[in-house]
Amino acid sequence: MRHLFLLVAAVCLWSGGPARGATLQQLSLDEMTAKATAIVHGRALEHYATAQGPTIFTHYRMQVSETLKGTAAGTIEVVLPGGTVGHMRQTFAGIPTLTEGKDYLLFLWTGKGVTQLIGFTQGLFEVSTDASGKTMVSRVASGELMLNRAGTPVQDQPVRMPLPLFTAHVKSIVDKGSK
């Protein structure tokens, strides 16, 4: 039994310690809009994963239906850490998974040729139609530790609002930033 404990302790030390959750900086809609190089409404078409060194990345191909900021059009690729390659699976706290066939509104940042979500789960909103036929934008509250600008822990809040109202607000922020 002592050998098993030593083996587990050695593996934890070698791997950097026990798994930990992510700590996210709380971002307002205005901050995400300002930081984004592109904001798009699109549909997840397909995905594949690659291993780059010790890290696995999942690449999502998205069909853009509307661009609210930036020049993204046609199909784009969004890359998120984590995924499965062969028999290896890697996950990261705070990283969402996109579902093929679903519509999303994504706040994106492109650097060094790679396009990613801003704020992990904060930058991904699902677009769906509710029971009354209204197109809605929603995001569940992140379960990760979130800090405000002062470094104080805060509770993330879910978001749910009609798509036209959401996009009008985002476009007004983009317009103010371009003046």
Summarize the SSE layout with pairings:
Layout: H1 2-14, E1 23-25, H2 29-35, E2 38-52, E3 55-69, E4 75-81, E5 83-85, E6 88-90, E7 103-111, E8 114-117, E9 124-129, E10 135-139, E11 145-147, E12 153-154, E13 159-162, H3 163-177
Parallel strand pairs: 1-11
Antiparallel strand pairs: 2-3, 2-7, 3-4, 5-6, 7-8, 7-9, 9-10, 10-13, 11-12
Notable characteristics:
globular; eight-stranded antiparallel sheet; 13 strands; alpha+beta; single chain
What report would you give on this structure?
The chain has helices at residues 2-14, 29-35, 163-177; strands at residues 23-25, 38-52, 55-69, 75-81, 83-85, 88-90, 103-111, 114-117, 124-129, 135-139, 145-147, 153-154, 159-162. The longest helix is centred in the last third of the chain and has 15 residues, at 163-177. The radius of gyration is 19 Å and the shape is globular. The model is unreliable at 1-20 (pLDDT under 50). Strand 11 and strand 12 (153-154) form a beta hairpin. The protein is 20% helix and 44% strand. It is an alpha+beta fold and 179 residues long. Helix 2 (29-35) crosses helix 3.
